[in-house]
Please model this.
Amino acid sequence: MNLQPLYDNIIVQLAEESNKTASGLFITSNHDTTKTATVVAVGPGRPLMDKTEYQPLPFTVGTTLLIKWGAGANGYKFKFEGTEYFQIDPSQVIGVL
Model:
């Protein structure tokens, strides 16, 4: 990927999820939830006080994350070279899987 995010932005691809149970029922969700996503690009980090150095993020490309989803924490959806990605903030990351 030729896209380099700025600052502490994280670019992810969401994992495919099924909204259908094994028995064939469809699950609807209108509340906050979590999703898994794979990191495809990471910015240099949060700028420090002098703005010449950055505090790096603890994620690398290929890391699988558990992220908050819903209630304004959906990230910014965009397409790049025909593929759908989301830009998320580090505060949306719950943990590394």
Q: What stands out?
A: The chain has no helices and eight strands. The radius of gyration is 15 Å. The chain has one domain: 10-96. The mean pLDDT is 85.
